[in-house]
Amino acid sequence: DDLLREAARIDLAAQDAYRALLSQVRTSDYLLTAAFILVDEARHLEVFLHRLRDLGVAEPEQEIRRRADANLREFRDRLLGYVAQGDWEAALFAQNVVLETMEYTVFRAHAPGADAVTRVVLEGVIKDERRHLGFGENDLGRRLVDNPTTRERLTHVRRDLDPLVLRTFESAQADLGVAEAVDQVVVDQPCR
Question: What is the distance between the alpha carbons of residues 105 and 107, in angstroms, rounded to a whole number?
Fold first, then answer.
């Protein structure tokens, strides 16, 4: 159930970000995509909470908020700051590339060792997260072609977020007792 708590904490951060991004949408294409992604993230959280209850966690919502990683909260706050500043590219990069990659990596690392029901849940979520990530990559790719200076700015955003991402992974690995699982997931498991 520690894995599901971690998954739910990350999904809560993603939901917060998508709600904020929806307020800044500039095109109807992204509005529809972001709305569908937000629904995906809400569905993921609901399934994780249900699974935690099945595993005997009496109040999973409170447990998740209580155990939320400080680095993940700081990441979420910075992402929401990009939205508040109207920095669409930075917000999109942080949400649809960095945070979605975090979700994808954590879930993919833990799915093989999860119980059968949790593994099926995670495998479904992994497919959604890869689609979310692909949207961010595609949208930012188009923007980088149109405005090459955006790349340099996003490099600075990445450098700013990297320590939070790494500390979040270190904390998750320590909580879950899987020191090398995330490090090996890309090498050891083929993409599906």
Answer: 6
| Residue 50 pLDDT level (bands cut at 50, 70, 90) | very high
The identity of residue 149, as a single letter, is T
| DSSP per residue, the chain | -HHHHHHHHHHHHHHHHHHHHHTT--SHHHHHHHHHHHHHHHHHHHHHHHHHHHTT-S-HHHHHHHT--HHHHHHHHHHHHHHHTT-HHHHHIIIIIIIHHHHHHHHHHHGGGS-HHHHHHHHHHHHHHHHHHHHHHHHHHHHHHH-THHHHHHHHHHHHHHHHHHHHHHHHHHHHT-TTHHHHHHHHS---
Q: How many CB atoms lie within 10 A of CB 133?
A: 19
With a pLDDT cut of 90, the percent of the chain lying above it is 21
Which pair of structure tokens corresponds to residue 53? 């209850």
C-beta contacts of 79-82 below 8 A and 24+ residues apart: 79/13, 79/17, 79/20, 80/16, 80/17, 80/20, 82/157
- Residue 56: partners with Cβ closer than 8 Å, 6 or more residues away: 1
Q: What is the pTM of this model?
A: 0.78
Q: In the numeric block, which tokens belong to residue 180?
A: 């090398």
Nearest to 155 by CA among 98, 85, 80: 98
- Distance set, CA 36 to CA 29, 40, 44, 121 (Å): 11, 6, 12, 19
